[in-house]
Every structure is written in C-alpha cells, then in structure tokens.
Amino acid sequence: MAGKAQLSGCKERTVRHLLIGLVLVGITLAIQPQTASAQQAQYDCTDVESCARLGTELFQSDQFLPAALVLEYAYQLDPVNVLLYNIARAYQRGNRCVRSSSYFRRYLDSGDTQAREQAAQHEPGQTACAERYHGLILQAEAALSASQPDQALALLTDAREFSDEPEARLMMLDLLLDSGTPENCQLASDTLGQVSALGDYSQTQWETLQELQQRTDQCLGQITSQTDQQQCLADRDRLDADWRHSVKTRQLIGIITAGVGGAVLIGAVVHDIVSQGTIDDYEAAAAAGDAAQYNSLRDDLSSAKTVSIILYAAGAATTAAGLVVWLTAGGTSPAESIDCSSVSWDFGFGLPSGEAGLWFSGVF
Q: What residues does each domain of the chain span?
C-alpha cells in the first residue's frame, strides 16, 4: 500500500509538472492573447500553477520584468526546471541579458529537454551580452578611479543599453548626484522616476535607492534655493537701480526748480535796477514842485514796487522748493531692507514614487 501510495504521488507530481510545462511553454509560443495586464494583476498567486499562468499573462502583455519576478516566485514554490527557461526568456525580452544568461545556463545544466534546443540557441548571445555589460562596468569603475566622471557616465549609459541592471542604475544615479550640477540633478530625478518602480532590487539595493532619492531631494532643494536666492538678488539690484534712477530724477527736478527761482530773483534785481531811473525822476519832480509829473511817477513807482515784491517772493519760494526737493531726494535705498541670505529651502525627504515591486520572502 505504501508503495502504491508513493507511486500515485509520483504520478500526480509528474502530471502536474507536465501541465505546468504546457502552460509555461506558451510564453515562447504565445498561442493565445491575454486580456490581463500588469496593472490589473495583483500578483496574488499562491501556488505554482496560478503563478505560472500569471507569469504567462504578464509575458504576453509585454510586462517582461514583472513576468520574470512572478515566475521566479513560482520557482521558489516548486522548482520545476522549465521555469528556469521561461524566467530566462522573460529577462531576455526585458533587456536583462545578465540575468537571462544565468537562467539559460541553469536550465541547460538541469538536464531538462522540453526547451533545450531553444535555450541552446539563445544562451550564447545572452552570455556575450552579459560579458559586454560586465566589461563596461569595469571600464566605468576604472574611469571613476581616474577621476573621469563624464567618461564613467557614458560607459554606464552604454552598459544599461546592453542590460538594464540595478547595479548600473545605482552607479549612474550616484555619479549624477556627485556632480552637483543642476542638469545632472534633474537627470537623476528623471531617472529615479523611471527606475524606482522596478521591482528587481535586492533589499540592500532598495535601501541604497531610498538614500539616492533623499540625495536627489536635497540636490533639487539646493538648486531651488540657489535659484530663489539669485532671483532675490536680481530683484534687489533692480529695485536699487530704480531707486537710484528716481533719486537722480528728483535731484535734477530740484536743481531745475532752484535754477528757475534763482533766475526769477535775478529778474527781480534787474527790475530794481531799471526802476531806479523812475525813482530818480520821481524825486526830481518832487523837488521841482511839478505836481502832474510827480503824480504820474508816483503811480509808476508803486507798480514797480509791487512787481519787485512779487518777483522776490516768487524767486525765493521757487529756489527754496528746489533746494528742498534736491536735499530730500536721497535717503536709504529700499533694497537695503531686503535680506537675500534669509532665502532658504525646506528639504523634504520621501520614498521613491511608484510601486515598490514584488517581495517574495525577502527576494524580489
């Protein structure tokens, strides 16, 4: 009985593995279109069969990285060899030749024959791609050691073209933030927005990614603070320039007004000089007893005095007004009350945006 029970268990396991294999080979054959998408899927599979189907759906909807992660989880639940091949295919289609080459080799070493011919065709190219990636990473590290950050950044960019590995992403982000330039800071922010939602990081890499996010927030904050301070200084300089122009204009108006007043006073003096002849004639008529001439000159002299008084008063008032305008045109520039050193940025720290990825017992 025990033998029969053991034989029955083996048959059930063999049949189950065959069913799984048929489902998973569908990834490479793409026999039927699926309506599920990565956004709709909740990654709530609990057994190897449901995870295999979910991985197939994700693969066929071109969600290759989520498909690889789900299939890796399925392999943890039950290490069916054909899963290794389909994980490799998902990573291959997702531009991850480093991981795909490793899984292709693991599948070929497993002895499984279900997709051996296909794996043997894919593995050499993926391995060559992975070797090229590692070579570029080593060159980037050498460039960093030689203080050639621009060269290192270009090499890391090329490496990500071969295989978009977390290692290369983190190195690139760290290098961009080390430069401290506004352009690279913004590029780091844009890159974080693209890669933070990917779920292929180890726990240590994810913690590093969070630290890089904080550094990016700081970098953006510093750039914003510097920009605000520069704007403050520009506004202060413009306000001071406007004030100085206004002072010069008021001083000019004061000088012109005082000049007009001075001219009026000079006019009053000239008028008095001219009127002196009338005064002499008036006194001569009085001495001669010429009543008619005396009365006529008296009226002229009265009018001359009135004009003289008006001219002196107007000249003095205008000159005084001009001097007041000129003297009060200065003062303290309002720009001096603006303290641009107080412009600061309130740094905010947060976790990367987007989905955190797939956690399977501590393995992404």
A: 238-328
